[in-house]
Amino acid sequence: MSIDKLPYEYLDTPCVLVNLDQLEANIHGMSHLARKAGVGLRPHTKVHESAWIAQLQLEAGACGIEVGPIDQAEVMFDNGIHDIIAAHPFYGAHKLETLKRIASNPRNNITVVVDMVEQAMGIAEVGREIGRDLPVLLKIDTGDGQRYGVPPGEPAVRVAQELHKMHGIHFAGVYGHEMGAVANQEWLSQKALKDGTIMCETAKAIREAGIPIDHVSIGASPTLDWMCKYIEEGRFPEITEIHPGNRVIGDIGYMMQGGNTRDTCAVTVLASVMSTAHDAYAILDAGYKTFGADSLISRRDTPNFFWEGKPSFGSVEGRPGLWLGRLAAETSCVYYKDPNESLSLGERLEIVPNNATLVINIHSSLYGVRKGEVERVIPVTGRGMGN
Fold first, then answer.
1. Greatest pairwise CA separation for the chain in angstroms
2. N or C: which end of the chain has fewer CB within 10 A?
3. pLDDT at 179
């Protein structure tokens, strides 16, 4: 939905801004890396949940998109996107009904991910009911993340054999995702090398067991550059797709993992100063109902993580002397690290959030800004759909 351009100072606060120039640069940067490596790019849309941004990614060369929950897939299909992987395994009658609605439309190319035979049994039943073998990928646990997935190698082969002989599904391949990243290039290079090797060796083992697969995917934002480099060098010919997500938006949390830099973050929270009654801090009109409440406490060993015992809940644009150190429900406290700092009543601040995924999911609309003017309102299409 387009609107007449207006200076964003006229926006009510708090709200979420998207720097359209930076968003487009991030989209084209990801596409360029994949194209140069000769690998399919299927961006994970969990960070923005927006069909409009997803369409920009497709126009830039993405082969399809990825979502987390199956409910997110349904709303993206409803908005005209027809090639989607639902990356989170699921179980239960409600979610299977959602899958049935999606898959009953022959235009919709839906692929689902499992890490248990029991999950696949329900999916296969849906496939038999609609007379269509539904593509299924097996999630491989590459380590470090403590998330779902089957151990690589022989355990994955055993599950693959069960999936291959199941009627109502088409066992299409394997899916991996690097976890636990730190912003250290040597670590990231080794992580990409290790996980890419795990995925390729597992794919080879499955094929050697007589099971044909045509899909091998991996790829997270922090390791994206290294993974594309290794694929371009020919080290991982088995990999067919990569699926980075957060780099398209960026935030402080992913910056700490090496997924983006501070200057490539495309989303900020616009908030206003509502009180300057205290000399040591000012109060903003945005709290955890706007920012979420992610203090990134798991990164507490990072140098300068705390200031006077307080973690930071976001980084104030252009004001390094300010520290967003406390959140309440609808307000927050910005402390003056430098005693010479001060804020004025009504002054507006742009704040790069710790967790852009969390911030965007709290809001129904984002405001696309270019050169200081609002160019469009961007609906958060998937808000509340599976969360």
1. 73
2. N
3. 77
Pair 306, 374 in one domain: yes
The tens digit of pLDDT for each residue in 104-152 reads 999 999 999 999 999 999 999 999 999 999 999 999 999 876 778 999 9
Determine the structural domain holding residue 348 and report its residue range. Answer: 262-379
Claim to verify: residue 240 and residue 270 sit in the same structural domain: no
Asked if residue 232 lies in contact with residue 38, where contact means CB atoms within 8 angstroms, the answer is yes
Q: Which of 250, 274, 304 is the last residue of a domain?
A: 250
Number of domains, the chain: 2
Mean pLDDT of the chain: 94
Q: Are 214 and 266 members of one domain?
A: no
Q: How far is residue 20's CA from residue 86's CA, in Å, rounded to a whole number?
A: 27
Beta-strand relationship, 169-175 and 134-139: parallel
* In-domain check, residue 214: yes
Angle between helices 185-208 and 154-164 (to 10 degrees): 50
Provide φ and ψ at 209, rounded to 5°.
Answer: -80, 5
State pTM to two decimals.
Answer: 0.95
Strands (E), the chain: 2-7, 15-19, 40-41, 65-67, 83-86, 109-114, 134-139, 169-175, 215-218, 241-242, 267-275, 281-284, 314-316, 322-327, 332-336, 348-353, 365-370, 373-379
Tell me if 290 sits within 8 A of 349, measured CB to CB: no
Separation of alpha carbons 328 and 288, rounded Å: 6
C-alpha of 325 from chain center: 25
Question: Which residue has tokens 């359209």?
Answer: 20
